[in-house]
């Protein structure tokens, strides 16, 4: 009876108190999903209001005497939960709330005091490095170079890139090495027209808040975006996909190995593409990982995949 009174009531404080009591009953492992549900409902209502406004605008154009208060039947916006067992660690998370990310980054000296720039020209560009005048090692910080975020949009039934940006770095302020040239294709002048890192970080934080963020070898990715505890949940594919190394120890599979094996794609043949890396990271989680038959009750559970080729 109390529930019925609340549902039909018009006193906001009473409804809020009821919700507080209700959410207090959730166990800790389920409480984390409430934000995802509320976020989806907010999107659902926003989409419905936009469709309603569009329908009314269209109707008013058809007839000046149209009754815009007539009911408008709106298509359902489904809340799609990730498939899996009740024991799966991702149980209760919405499919639309999973975000794939990739960050290509550059290394910059933490402090330029008593640090000299060392340059070496090559065909088409300049290698840039740094050395301290007293001979001690230069300490570097990991900074965003390019970043991409992808989600699966249930309304569109397709993958959608929701963010793609390049950071601003003045030339001769970051390393350009043989590795940078071969893997990222970055040059000394690649980031003169980018966005300030602070703006990029703030926008990323807005987009991933309370979401499940998927990475593959993403320690530096998370460092570069200024990740902090409580911002969102994270999962790295390399926590699960292992192979036996030369010394018999377990080492993580690279993104290239996983994409070429599971999707039969000629992937990362040349320099890395931040957009493609983020998309394939998300696809591996949604199309492969959550459908595995292993015990995945904990996100730390791993398995050995020695049948997957390790590409150089």
Describe this structure in words.
- The protein contains 9 helices and 10 strands.
- With 312 residues, the protein is α/β, with parallel strands linked by helices.
- The chain has 3 domains: 1-28, no CATH class; 32-79; 95-304, Nucleotidyltransferase, domain 5 (2-Layer Sandwich).
- A hairpin with a 5-residue loop joins strand 8 (241-244) and strand 9.
- Helix 8 crosses helix 9 (274-288).
Secondary-structure topology with pairs:
Layout lengths: L1 H7 L3 H13 L3 H4 L2 H29 L35 E12 L5 E8 L2 E8 L7 E14 L4 E9 L11 H7 L12 H12 L3 E4 L3 H6 L8 E4 L4 E4 L5 E3 L2 H9 L10 H15 L14 E2 L8
Helix pairs in contact: 8-9
Overall, the morphology is globular
Distance between the termini: 66 Å
Question: What is the count of distinct domains?
Answer: 3
> Beta-strand level of the residues, as a percent range?
15-25%
- Per DSSP E runs of 2 or more residues, the count of β-strands stands at 10
**Name of the CATH superfamily of the largest domain:** Ribonuclease H-like superfamily/Ribonuclease H
Helix content: 25-40%
The level 1 CATH classification of the largest domain is: Alpha Beta
CATH fold descriptor of the largest domain? Nucleotidyltransferase, domain 5
Order of helices and strands: HHHHEEEEEHHEHEEEHHE
Sheet with the most strands, sense and barrel status: 5 strands, mixed
Going by helix content, strand content and strand pairing, the class is alpha/beta
Query: What CATH architecture label of the largest domain applies?
Result: 2-Layer Sandwich
Q: Report the uncertain regions.
A: 1-12, 43-74
Strand order in the sheet with the most strands:
5-4-1-6-7
Q: Over all CA atoms, what is the radius of gyration? A: 25 Å
What's the pLDDT, averaged over the residues? 81
| Separate helix tally | 9
